Amino acid sequence: MPILVITGTGTEVGKTVTTAAIAAAAGRSVAVLKAAQTGVGPDERGDADEVARLAGAVTAAEVARFPEPLAPGTAARRAGMAPVHPQDVAEAAAKLATEHELVLVEGAGGLLVRFDAAGGTLADAARLLNAPVLVVVSAGLGTLNTTELTARELRARELELLGVVIGSWPDSPDLASRCNVADLPEVAGAPLLGAVPAGAGALSPADFRTLAPSWLSARLDGSWDAEAFRGRVAR
């Protein structure tokens, strides 16, 4: 798995912190590529920079960035800038893969957020790369619908869904969140591969790197166990 595409069921579900946890747990040379960074200025830190801050020795790269916090295609149009195309993302990731053992490609928003006027998306980039896709999901009410819709779209495009990770597991999960631990893999048709605690991004980088493997399953180079986790939270 030299390239892994990481998407979410929407914005603010924990994609960047999850990407950082995967990078920290990897134990090999890692590059993180942000397909399209929006909502930051030229001299501000982007999501790839945040991954590098938390995970440590990671190569951080972006295909493009746009100043307004909008979908990449919209942000590019409003800024009068050239948009990102799926081929651009695929070429950048493939180049990084020649120099690193693992490349993590983080999308913007959800799977079908548009990059360009032609309707190109992260899903198209994953197809060009023939790379598996990891879906970061929210914990609570409403997540089953968005997770199943994303999983169905991946299957319709014949893309591999590696699994799902809960991007922000609350300190005091409500009933819906606890039930969703069992239901998420069912609706996704793919395993639950981890649960990143809420607020993990606020940890010191040293603590983050130490704890990251405990949030992820062995498939993501961690030690987290889905059955044990389900048993703890189902009470």
Describe this structure in words.
- It is globular and about 55 Å long.
- It is 39% helix and 21% strand.
- It is an alpha/beta fold.
- The protein starts with a strand and ends with a helix.
- The strands form 2 sheets. It has a 7-stranded parallel sheet, with helices on both faces. A two-stranded parallel sheet has the order 3-5.
Summary keywords:
seven-stranded parallel beta sheet, alpha/beta, 235 residues, globular
* Strand residue percentage: 15-25%
- Give the number of DSSP strands: 9
Based on helices, strands and strand pairing, what is the structural class?
alpha/beta
Sequence stretches where pLDDT stays below 50 over 5 or more residues: none
User: Mean pLDDT, nearest integer?
Assistant: 96
Would you kindly provide a brief summary of this structure?
This protein has 235 residues and is α/β, with parallel strands linked by helices.
Write the layout of secondary structure elements.
Blueprint (H helix, E strand, L loop, with lengths): L2 E6 L6 H12 L3 E5 L2 E2 L8 H9 L2 E5 L2 E2 L5 H8 L6 H12 L4 E9 L11 H8 L3 E5 L5 H14 L4 E9 L5 H14 L3 E6 L7 H7 L14 H8 L2
Parallel strand pairs: 1-6, 1-7, 2-4, 2-6, 3-5, 7-8, 8-9
